[in-house]
Amino acid sequence: MEFALLVLNDEYHKVELAGGYCDGNCSVCRKCTNNRNIVTLIREENAEFYQKYVLDHQTRTAELCKKVSEALSLDEGERTILVQSALLHDIGKLLIPFCILSKNGSLSSYERRIIQFHPLKGAEWLRERDFSEEIVTIIEAHHEKVDGSGYPYGLKGDEIPFLARVLAVCDTFEVMISERHYKPPKSINEALEELKKEAGRQFDKAVVITFTEMWYNEVKEEKKVVV
């Protein structure tokens, strides 16, 4: 399930909301292929970057959220909201200047601040189009940290919506194990150790415990030999 598609249109690609969301209201339904919502226009030479580092990343993060939602025994409504939030969580990056988003070297303090606006930009874009406030709030808070050092509001602990805390773990893990234009990927074990190291500081400790147990259980299942 994808929230967006890159659609070639002359020398530009359009990023369109084409699926993965439905609020049951036909006047604003995003599933209808005849009523797509254009997020932004992207130059041909930048299309691969956006596909790899934004759109595909969101899809992979949503798959992780789906798995951990089952491990957490979330109800069907919570699972749906979490997965939809994951599919949309970096939409604000489509509204950040490409020269900053794609920079290979270290970011200046100004550039870092611009990047940190992406949860707010995404939330604003979605609110203007009447997306569920539950989803918007999760997206707005997915870079908050439980110790209060995150952004955009510096929320602490339970001030951060629980599903945003779940998304933060899945999002960060997916980034760590993926190759990025500014870093090589970490191994699964390295990424899990980093999550455990930051449990109680950056991440919700209970979510990290469930997430790491989920991975270790998957490994055990894969190693079982059926005779």
How is the secondary structure organized here?
Elements: E1 4-9, E2 12-17, E3 37-43, H1 47-71, H2 76-88, H3 98-101, H4 109-115, H5 118-127, H6 133-140, H7 162-177, H8 188-198, H9 205-223
Antiparallel strand pairs: 1-2, 2-3
Helix pairs in contact: 1-2, 1-7, 2-6, 2-7, 5-6, 6-7, 7-8, 8-9
How would you portray this structure in words?
With 227 residues, the protein is mainly alpha-helical. Helices cover 50% and strands 8% of the residues. The protein contains nine helices and three strands. Strands 1-2-3 form a three-stranded antiparallel sheet, covered by helices on one side. A hairpin with a 2-residue loop joins strand 1 and strand 2. The longest helix is centred in the N-terminal third of the chain and has 25 residues. The radius of gyration is 18 Å and the shape is globular. The chain starts with a strand and ends with a helix. About 10% of the residues have low confidence.
What is the strand content? 5-15%
Number of strands: 3
Rounded to an integer, what's the Rg over CA atoms?
18 Å
The order of strands across the largest sheet is: 1-2-3
Short summary:
With 227 residues, the chain is mainly α.
Give keywords.
single chain; 227 residues; mainly alpha; three-stranded antiparallel beta sheet; 8% strand; globular
